[in-house]
Write a structure and sequence with these properties.
The structure holds two protein chains of two kinds. Chain A has 13 helices and 14 strands. By secondary structure, chain A is an alpha/beta fold. In chain A, strands 6, 7, 8, 9, 10, 11, 12, 13 and 14 form a nine-stranded mixed beta sheet that branches. A five-stranded parallel beta sheet of chain A has the order 2-1-3-4-5, sandwiched between helices. A two-stranded antiparallel ribbon of chain B has the order 1-2. The chains are: A alpha/beta, B mainly alpha.
Chain lengths: 394, 287
């Protein structure tokens, strides 16, 4: 009985699959473009995932809801920021849903999974956040593009700013994990090049937030300044502990922009005044492009966009430019990649281009916390490019 | 490191150690007396912190929030023991682990429904929102000193209750040999409810006390849970005195490790645990 039923369902499925294949029109351009969104829709990074999703869809809607002249169809997977499911979830989108392009994700560990699948299957992959170096360095790939940053890029420009202000001896502090180490690498490079010296490196395991011992150590070293990489809940705690330990105002605090991004509420703002950060975006960037973007986003989603929404938006712009160049035929890979490599993205953060390793070449803004805003003081580094060391593309 | 800094770091270690003790005391009692491996202990800490956040937001008073939150968590622990844990005392450790692991997910989901997935801050009460200047660059937040005092007082009270009162004697008897205690006429069922409720309340209270210092965030119980188990294992399962010694030891190793050997800081505590297990497999204070 069972075996006969199995046989029947199996053959029915096979016939179904085969016939649906025959029914497909010969011209790919007439079918819907299948877009896979693999982002965190639950868990700690939910807001980031939602912002990227919103920004991405908005870019496509502004272009008339079509990509390269083709209608679009979305396939969503919640990656839960769970690295162990990275490969499985990416494979689901590529093998089962047969997506033409995969947009994702936030967490670097999950990105490793997506990256593996992208390299193995050759599916077009656009990274809207995760900053792990390997994706656009040693493991770079012709079909993988990033619209965000490398972890080192967000701290590299700090060094010159600090030395220019006479802060030549600094303590570096971060979480001991991949993103923290990579941000540290970027900082050291920039700080050494500007003539600064790191007097001590401090670290604690991710996502531990018991900073008290380290702050005591900083107070006893008395460096000219402190530079750090923290983000999210840990960043907000670090800022408050730094102020509570009496260090704020005595030893200036610098960091990657993620230290203060999206965190400045009534509780935190008083402790954060005067903190200087570098990032490729700030909500307070006073350009027509940014104003227009912020207004449209606020109207559509009834909330304020952040840097993650911009990165998602730019992922949409990049896909639109690439697809337009090949009239929606994403299987024309050579022309598609060439168009994406050569694209200039007119982003709310300012115009940026693609490096040979497929990472943004972009301006890094110097921002200072004033009130509840990251006020832009100027450009800390013009057209900053990641070294892309180890990448053999281009 | 000069002398002044050494003493400040010592103060930091004691303060961290005492907080760990409050957390681990409940865990070690529940483990020692009822034989339950309670992985959900960290979740109680997380719920405590969120309660402090929600109640302070509603009433604008942290002290009131902590008092009400402690009462609520006693009731919560009491009910949880009656409805759920009671039926697992004689089941295998695997069943208990599965139950309490599941509870972590349930509590996290409840937290997500009630308060969302955002990171929240709890304001330090105005009365304690000042610092003491210790060196020319370093001030010590008054709230940290308050917490140190609170934790010391609670640790003392716990010690007094366990070693000097009749109730404490029953608890010790229960931890030593539960069947024997029962046959001597101790109402072991009620004792279990009481100890469990107390353990939950201690975990929640630690979460509430630390909430103005730490941010309140999802999964915040996960990292303290591991530290708690380290403390329980080093101290010896079921021993409150052991938990105190171990917590202070872990505080010392963690604090000075971070400063003196930053590159090995994350593993030093576990090296300590491994050494203790090697030479004293039952922990420092075997029951």
């Amino acid at each position: 009985m069972t075996s006969r039923r199995q046989l029947l369902t199996h053959s029915a499925a096979m016939v179904g699959a085969a016939s649906s294949g025959w029914l497909l029109p010969a011209h790919a351009q007439n079918t819907k473009l299948r877009i896979g969104l693999m982002l965190p829709y639950t868990g700690t990074f939910t807001q980031l995932g939602v912002a990227i999703d919103n920004g991405f869809r908005m870019a496509l809607q502004e272009a008339g809801g079509k990509v390269g002249g083709r209608e679009i169809e979305f396939f969503k997977v919640d990656d839960e920021s769970e690295p162990s499911k990275g490969v499985e979830n990416a494979s689901k989108l590529v093998q089962r849903d047969k997506v033409d392009v995969l947009i994702g994700t936030v967490h670097s560990g999950v990105q490793m999974g997506i990256h593996k699948v992208a390299r193995e299957t050759g599916v077009l992959s656009i990274i809207p956040n995760a900053g792990m170096h390997a994706a656009t360095r040693a493991l770079c790939a012709p079909n993988v593009f990033r619209t965000s940053f490398t972890n080192g890029q967000t701290t590299q420009a700090l060094g010159k700013v600090m030395v220019d202000k006479g802060h030549k001896k600094a303590v570096w502090i971060t979480w001991k994990y991949a993103a923290g180490d990579e941000a540290g690498e970027g900082f050291k490079q920039g700080f050494a090049a500007a003539g600064g010296t790191i007097v001590k490196e401090l670290g604690l395991p991710f996502p531990n937030v018991e900073f008290q011992a380290l702050l005591t150590e900083i107070a006893s070293i008395k460096p000219d300044a402190v530079a750090c990489f923290f983000s999210g809940g840990g960043a907000s705690k670090f800022i408050r502990d730094y102020a509570a330990a009496g260090l704020a105002g005595k030893i200036p605090l610098y960091g990657s922009g993620f230290l203060t991004e999206g965190l400045l509420d009534d509780e935190l703002a008083p402790a954060a005044q005067g903190i200087m950060t570098t990032l490729h975006y700030s909500a307070s960037l006073a350009t027509k492009r940014n104003d227009a973007f912020r207004l449209a986003y606020a109207k559509t989603y009834k909330m304020q966009p952040d840097v993650f929404a911009v990165q998602g938006y730019d992922a949409g712009l990049l896909l639109l430019q690439g697809a337009a160049a090949v009239n929606g035929d994403l299987s024309n890979k050579k022309a598609l990649y060439a168009a994406m490599e050569g694209s200039v993205i007119d982003s709310p953060r300012g115009k940026w281009t693609m490096s040979k390793a497929h990472n943004p070449v972009q301006d890094m803004y110097l921002r200072v916390v004033k009130g509840k805003e990251n006020v832009v003081l100027g450009v800390a580094a013009k057209a900053l490019s990641d070294s892309g060391v180890g990448c053999k593309l281009g | 490191m000069d002398l002044a800094n050494f003493f400040i770091q010592l103060l930091n270690s004691v303060q961290y150690g005492l907080l760990l003790f409050l957390l681990a005391a409940g865990l070690t009692l529940i483990f020692g007396i009822m034989g339950v491996v309670n992985l959900a202990h960290g979740a109680f800490y997380m719920l405590g912190a969120y309660m402090a956040y929600a109640l302070t937001a509603a009433w604008g008073n942290l002290a009131l929030a902590i008092a009400a939150g402690t009462l609520l968590s006693v009731v919560f622990g009491w009910l949880l023991e009656k409805i759920l844990f009671r039926h697992f005392y004689h089941r295998s450790h695997l069943d208990q682990v599965l139950l309490t692991f599941g509870l972590i997910y349930i509590f996290e989901e409840l937290r997500s429904m009630l308060w969302g997935d955002d990171v929240h801050n709890v304001a330090v009460p105005a009365l304690l929102d000042w610092s003491i200047q210790l060196t020319d660059t370093l001030s010590y937040p008054a709230y940290r000193l308050f917490m140190l005092a609170m934790c010391s007082a609670l640790a003392l009270a716990l010690w007094f209750m366990i070693s000097k009162t009749k109730l404490g004697m029953k608890i010790r008897a229960g931890a030593f040999n539960s069947d024997m205690a029962q046959s001597l006429g101790i109402n072991i069922v009620r004792l279990h409810s009481l100890v469990f409720a107390m353990g939950v309340a201690l975990a929640a209270l630690s979460g509430m006390l630390i909430s103005p210092l730490s941010s309140v965030y999802p999964h915040m119980g996960a990292q303290v849970l591991i530290m708690c188990f380290v403390v329980v294992v080093i101290g010896g399962i079921g021993s409150v005195r052991g938990a105190l010694t171990a917590a202070l030891l872990v505080g010392l190793v963690d604090t000075f490790g971070k400063v003196l050997l930053p590159q090995f800081a994350s593993m030093l505590v576990y090296v300590l645990m491994a050494l203790v297990l090697l030479y004293k497999p039952e922990g420092l204070f075997k029951q």
